[in-house]
Every structure is written in structure tokens, then in C-alpha cells.
Write a structure and sequence with these properties.
There is one protein chain. The chain contains 16 helices and 5 strands. By secondary structure, it is α/β, with parallel strands linked by helices. The longest helix has 23 residues. It binds zinc ion. The site of zinc ion has 9 residues, from α3.
Length: 337
């Protein structure tokens, strides 16, 4: 699994279990969104089927089994999930319960990758439990979830939990440039946008690749630009004339406004940490020098006040307060007008 970035300890464990033929027939991969859970599951599928298994590094990525599986063309690797819905339906579980009894097409096993397993209702989990306990001998399961704590204890006791680790920005940069030409292109033509994209991905490979999609890229960049411009304006002798126009860039839609305010909160947190220590690790600002410059304009107490005002706006947005009023209160609480 050497083509996977990060998650070294999990990869080593999975490879040695597969080599020793003692991989659990069911296990759970837990990790935040975009940390490579699905990629890891597909690599396990390929490693199990790889015809060069005895030769060493698995999967080899070259044999026909590896290629077919990793291209998503094997009928014996079955991925099911929520299909964009909020919960995982009991009908999907019923389909799996039926489908496990048909023999594999061309592999020696059938592997079910259950995405968003933590979104299964209790009813769905109970329906799934019997199949998980006693599946036909050729059936394997990998359950993917963000929070294994939401799964029933009876499920967790039958499937060991492996946790994916976030990748560092340098590895993320190297990996996405290797697998997606748009990343390499963006890095070349617009290094500052590329740096913003890496920070926005928050150590998630899947997230970075998703943000490279044209429909996601512009909205993500807009949200980041608004947070940066807000911090810049708020810290440069603010006046109503300068601050009010910024308000019209905030969305009237609550879900988008929520992302905008979260980004602003992350930016202010970075500034607060930087105010205390020049070498503080940053979660939001891609341009550290600019963040330091902003920081130097204001006091720590100003940043605390701004931070509280943003948190209050986030809270009010969640409570469905009037958007225009909550934004006016934000700039008033922060002492900007
Ligand atoms: Zn292979």
C-alpha cells in the first residue's frame, strides 16, 4: 500500500495481517472526512486479490486483479452508503443481507465497503448485526465512519477499529500533485491559490481533491478571501465605510454563512495564537507573514473581543436569528463601528 500517503502504521498492520492470512473478516476504519478511508479500503481489496501477494509489496498495482479493483471495475467489491441522505437506510442493509449469499463473480471473496456506517440507525445496525456475525465464508466487510462511538457495542466488538491519521501538508501537496493534474497545474499557475487550497483541505486528501473540482473551488476560495479581508479590514483603523461593504459579502443562506463564520473564527484563532507566539502552528492562514503583519496592528484584547463576537454570531446563526441583525451585532460587538 505504498501508493497511499500517511497512515503508515495502519498500512503496515493491514499488510502484515494479509500476508499472514489473519485479516479480520470485518473491521472498521474510523477517521475524519477526507483522511483516505475509502482509498485505504480499496487498497485492502486489491491487496487481498493481488496475484503477486507472495512476492512482497501489496498491492502491486500492476497485476490485472489490482488494476481492475482500483479502477472500480470489480463486481465483487461492493460499496454501499447513504447516497447523500442523512441516515443509512434499513433497505440498504436488507440489500446487503440478501446479496451476501450470491457467490463472487471472479474473485475468491466479496468485499462490502460500508460507507458512513455511523449513520446507520439503531434499527439498521441491529438488522446488519446477524450478517456481520455469521456471513458466508467468502464475505468480508470494511465499515467506514467518522465516529465509531456511534456504532452499537455489539458491532464494535465484532470488528476491530483502525483510526486513520491526518496527513501533513507537505505529504498532501506531494500526493495530490501526483494523482491530479489540476493540482500540479494550479500550483504552477497560481501558487497562492494552491497554498490556500492546501490549508482549506485541513489535512484531508479526499477534501483537497474535492476542492479541486470546479464547482467547489470558487466557493471555497471566496469563503477564505472573505475571512482574510475581514481580518485585514477590522485591524486597519476600521471605519463604518470600510466595514459595512464587507457585510454584503456574507451569505443570506445559513449553511453558507455558517461556513463563512467558521472560517472567520479559525482566522481569528490563528491571529490570537500568533499574538502569543511567532512560531505558533497555523490552521487557517497560508501566508504566515501576512498573518503576522495583521497581528502587529492590534492588541491581544482586541482579538479576544473579535473572537467572542464571531462565536456569538455563529451561535445566533444556529438559532435562526435574523442574518442582517446578527452581522451588524458582530461588527458592533467587535467595536468596528
Ligand atoms: Zn497486484
Amino acid at each position: 500500500m505504498n501508493a497511499i500517503v500517511g497512515n503508515k502504521s495502519i498500512r503496515q498492520k493491514l499488510c502484515s495481517d494479509i500476508h499472514a492470512d489473519k485479516l479480520s473478516h470485518a473491521f472498521i476504519i474510523e477517521g475524519s472526512r477526507g483522511t483516505g478511508k475509502h482509498t485505504l479500503a480499496m487498497n485492502v481489496a486489491a491487496a487481498l486479490a493481488c496475484s503477486h501477494k507472495s512476492a512482497g509489496t501489496i498491492p502491486c498495482y500492476e497485476c490485472s486483479e489490482c488494476r481492475k479493483i482500483l479502477a472500480g471495475n470489480s463486481p465483487d467489491i461492493i460499496t454501499v452508503g447513504c447516497d447523500g441522505k442523512a441516515t443509512f437506510s434499513v433497505e440498504t442493509v436488507r440489500y446487503v443481507k440478501e446479496d451476501v449469499h450470491t457467490v463472487p463473480n471472479d474473485l475468491e471473496f466479496k468485499l462490502y465497503i460500508i460507507e458512513d456506517a455511523d449513520k446507520m440507525t439503531v434499527q439498521a445496525q441491529n438488522a446488519f448485526l446477524l450478517t456481520l456475525e455469521e456471513p458466508p465464508s467468502f464475505v468480508r466487510f470494511i465499515l467506514l465512519c467518522e465516529n465509531a462511538g456511534l456504532l452499537l457495542e455489539t458491532i464494535r466488538s465484532r470488528a476491530p477499529v483502525l483510526r486513520t491519521e491526518p496527513v501533513d501538508n507537505a505529504s498532501l501537496d506531494e500526493y495530490i500533485c501526483k494523482v491530479d493534474r489540476r493540482a500540479a497545474q494550479l500550483k504552477l499557475t497560481s501558487p497562492s491559490d494552491y497554498a490556500e487550497l492546501i490549508m482549506a483541505a485541513k489535512h484531508g486528501i479526499g477534501t483537497a481533491l474535492e476542492y479541486l473540482e470546479p464547482k467547489s473551488f470558487a466557493p471555497v476560495m471566496d469563503i477564505r478571501a472573505l475571512a482574510i479581508d475581514f481580518c485585514d479590514t477590522a485591524t486597519s483603523t476600521p471605519s463604518a465605510k470600510a466595514v459595512i461593504p464587507l457585510l454584503s459579502r456574507f451569505s443570506q443562506k445559513r449553511d453558507i454563512l455558517s461556513k463563512q463564520l467558521s472560517a472567520l473564527s479559525e482566522a481569528v484563532t490563528d491571529l490570537t495564537l500568533l499574538k502569543k507566539s511567532d512560531d505558533a502552528p497555523l490552521d487557517f492562514f497560508a501566508n504566515r507573514n501576512f498573518a503576522i503583519e495583521i497581528c502587529d496592528r492590534v492588541s491581544l484584547s482586541f482579538l479576544y473581543t473579535l473572537s467572542c463576537a464571531v462565536m456569538d454570531a455563529i451561535d445566533k446563526n444556529q438559532r435562526n436569528a435574523n442574518v442582517r441583525l446578527l452581522l451588524l451585532k458582530l461588527i458592533s460587538d467587535a467595536g468596528l463601528i
